[in-house]
Amino acid sequence: DELSRSSHSNPGKSLVNGIKTNPASNSPKSSLPVPMGPPVYVDLAYIPNHCSGKNTDPEFFRRVRASYYVVSGNDAANGEPSRAVLDALLEGKAQWGENLQVTLIPTHDTEVTREWYQQTHEKQQELNIMVLASSSTVVMQDESFPACKIEF
């Protein structure tokens, strides 16, 4: 009864996904933990936040199992892409218990991805991870940018 009264007097402020929360702590860092569940299988997943270590850890790769992961980071000053996230892919994939093929698609050729690729190549092969290296570019009007073609 208290829960329904608080949601009527302050709609949406004290409930998150139907669970009562402390209205004083609305910051993302104090959010409720996500309950464990079965992994989600997808064809293509974009690694969040330009492959920044702020939002992605091994748990992401344990739970979101993709045939293709896109790495779009190209800002070394902000740690994008993050070596820790690329290592988290290896750690998460190692716990899948099945040897499904995974393809990593970097949208930029960065020093971080090159070093990670060279230093972990054996582990990538062991885990059935392939990294695409593409020199393809798209030219539109007066602008050109890297491109990858993905076929399913």
Low-confidence runs (pLDDT<50, min 5 residues)? 1-30
Q: How many structural units, i.e. domains?
A: 1
Distance between the termini: 51 Å
Could you give the order of strands across the largest sheet?
Answer: 3-4-5-6
Task: Tell me, briefly, the overall form.
Answer: globular
Q: How many DSSP-defined strands?
A: 8
Overall mean pLDDT stands at 76
Rg:
20 Å
Order of helices and strands: HEEEHHEHEHHEEE
How many strands, which pairing sense, and closed or not: the largest β-sheet?
4 strands, parallel
* Broad structural category: alpha/beta
GO cellular component, one term: cytosol
Region (Disordered): 1-34
Organism: Mesembrinibis cayennensis
InterPro entries: MAP1 (IPR026074), RibonucZ/Hydroxyglut_hydro (IPR036866)
Written account of the structure:
- This protein is of the alpha/beta class and 152 residues long.
- The protein is 30% helix and 23% strand.
- It has one domain (40-146).
- The strands form 3 sheets. Strands 3-4-5-6 form a 4-stranded parallel sheet.
- The longest helix is centred in the middle third of the chain and has 12 residues, at 83-94.
Map the helices and strands.
Blueprint: H1 2-9, E1 15-16, E2 19-20, E3 40-46, H2 48-51, H3 58-63, E4 64-71, H4 83-94, E5 102-106, H5 111-119, H6 121-126, E6 129-131, E7 137-140, E8 143-146
Parallel strand pairs: 3-4, 4-5, 5-6
Antiparallel strand pairs: 1-2, 7-8
GO molecular function, one term: microtubule binding
Protein name: MAP1A protein
Biased composition (Polar residues): 1-12, 19-30
